[in-house]
Amino acid sequence: MTTTVTADDLRIHVASKQFDSTQSEDGSLQVLQDIDLQLPPGEFVSIVGASGCGKSTLLRLVLGLDTAYDGAITLGGEAITGPGLERGIVFQDHRLFPWLTVEQNIGVGLRNSTFNARQKRNLIAEHVALVGLEGFEKSFPHQISGGMAQRVAIARGLVNRPRVLLLDEPFGALDALTRARLQGELQRIWQKERITMLLVTHDVEEAVFLGDRVVVMQPHPGRIRRIVDVNLPHPRNRSDPEFIRLRDDVLADFLAPDRHGAAGIGPSDVPPAQPAAPIGFSSERIRFAW
Length: 290
Fold this sequence. Notes:
The protein has helices spanning 55-63, 102-107, 117-130, 146-158, 176-193, 204-210, 241-255, and strands spanning 10-20, 28-39, 44-48, 70-75, 78-79, 87-90, 164-168, 196-201, 213-218, 223-229. It is of the alpha/beta class.
């Protein structure tokens, strides 16, 4: 793990989070425990784990929506104490305003910015092009596909030029074809923009395909089990033997948790056998549905 802190590092230092719970003996539920993670500027980090391991809760802490936790989260050495323009987010649901056009929805990301009207128009046009939606600027959400709507959401998250973009299962609701295409698009955008990105996902293949590092989490409470470096060139090839090896290495943490000497998922938590993949798709792309 990196130890030297630079001006734009995102640093999550021994962060722990509890929620009130009537189901536990002491009245609290430990959701996150001792999360320690550092992201240098421009790095893409994927966090993968089963539901209940606190992935989305961690993003809420980084976004500044929840400040009631132990530990410290800083960006460039400054404590995160609430939402800020230097951090954008893309959710699983695109959350577009149905009464706004594509360009107007992207422009929502600029409402609290200091750019003037001309700069905003230029930024919107630039990000429409970045996500490949030229010709659809005046379209409303009901007039475009789900994949296109998610592109709008990505453009909205990037248009304010944040230092960090958080991605909360951004492709989880999409079909396999659209999902694979948008993973490639996101990889292309990240290579072009070099914004620090933090992705949470259930999908092991997605995590390896996009991330420079894959953070493997285990639940109850949510904590980092290990971090896997993905030293593969871009654009990535899902058929590359080294890609497959890394994917299977991460997947083994969920199917055979004792391999690394840590208590983890039991037999009842292993997902059922997956149906055969259609021709042209990799059957190794397993998405957990816990």
